[in-house]
Amino acid sequence: MTMLEADIPPKPPSDDITADSPTSPNLRYSKHIVLTTYPGQSGIDPVPLEWGAPDAKSRGPVVVSRSGPLLKRRNAMGAHGGSYSIYNALAIAAGDLEPDFRPDFRNSEPTFNFPSQPAWANKEKIVSMDPYGHDIVNQFSDLLNAGWDIRPTMAITRANMKLSEIGEAVRDGKLNVDGSIVVDSSGEVRVTKVAVEPVWYLPGVADRFGVDEATLRRTLFEHTGGSYPELITRPDLKVFLPPIGGLTVYIFGPPERVSDENVKLALRIHDECNGSDVFQSDICTCRPYLAFGIEEAIREAQNGGSGVVIYFRKEGRALGEVIKYLVYNARKRGGDTADKYFTRTENIAGVRDMRFQALMPDILHWLGIKKIDRMLSMSNMKHDAIVQSGIQIVERVPIPEEMIPSDSRVEIDAKINAGYFTTGRNYTMEELAEVRGRGWEKWEDVTH
Ligand SMILES: [Zn+2]
């Protein structure tokens, strides 16, 4: 079988502006476009990649680049950078970046060496991130020195952060200045951060969702507009770097305590809600719960334990902001009551939630977490996914009543009715019909 190729269409006669331009695609790429590859095809020789192998070197590097000879050696599909892979392509198209650019990783190594965990070598415990993604430069220096394009998919750094709610908690005497975690009376906090890009081991991902691998691959292929044909033509490639957002771990206190079973761990899993998290919209409880989670994480660390907040880029229950705002409009125009809360989302998105927490526990296993003493979340889906993955949850801590914005009662009461954990009361559907959000009255005064 020969490589499936397509000739670049001839240039239109009028196209003389870019013909001799240094950014002309014909000068940057070979004359033939390789649309896909096949196993056993001449020259196709993927670098061995054994997911779940006992260490990074025997596991092998994730090679996803199509650059030069790597096209035949790659062992993974997709591209580095998650959704930002498209911006990377734009930078190359614009001539700002050479297609064969190789990063200089000097001094980029982690600020903390997380101790290796048994889960790193367990192909069932970690299926949605590369457990060695932070250590690429160290583990595969020989390949990097030889000019191979392999890249870290994780990065570990440290920072200071300042949140108005934490500043208030310090001023109100609810949090102490300890000089190490909370460094001063303004509420400045020291934090260790771990950024993670998604790297999917497809058999493991399929398994989590209870589907067969072929169904997962076909569905991913079809519903990315056919963007990744090797999902179909290369069943031997098992790893896919999907074009989606990743996650960030925020660790308060000494990072070595996170995996220490002998100290208490307070943990919040938070899914992105930009409108509330950053811009402090009051239609939901996201920012207040996030701030509460950070405060409790800091407190646990100050008490000799560990505090962790993990932020997942799954905007609007992974439906995105366009769908989210369409749902807001449908809610507000249709009489915004808690009994109809999920129906409004289902009408527009077809489902009430696309976050599918099945992959979420991977990062907990990567960190070496074996039990969570205080789980700062009411989500039954997050709870169930964590417990089913073998991590114990000792206590669940709901958001305090006084932190719930009045317009967000529609959301939180509907979620409680649907199974969210609460230590307060659970409303009936009849009662939910009485829980009403703010309407758009008086908005005419603002907009006209
Ligand atoms: Zn929200």
From TrEMBL:
It comes from the Eukaryota. Residues 264-398 form the GTP cyclohydrolase II domain. Residues 1-26 are annotated as: Disordered. The keyword GTP-binding applies. It holds the Pfam family GTP_CH_N. GO terms for molecular function: GTP binding; GTP cyclohydrolase II activity. InterPro entries: GTP_CH_N, GTP_cyclohydro_II, RibA, RibA-like_sf. CDD domains: GTP_cyclohydro2 (cd00641). One of its GO terms (biological process) is riboflavin biosynthetic process. Keywords: GTP-binding, Hydrolase, Nucleotide-binding. Residues 31-223 form the GTP cyclohydrolase N-terminal domain. Coiled coil: none annotated. The keyword Transmembrane helix does not apply. Belongs to the GTP cyclohydrolase II family. This is GTP cyclohydrolase II.
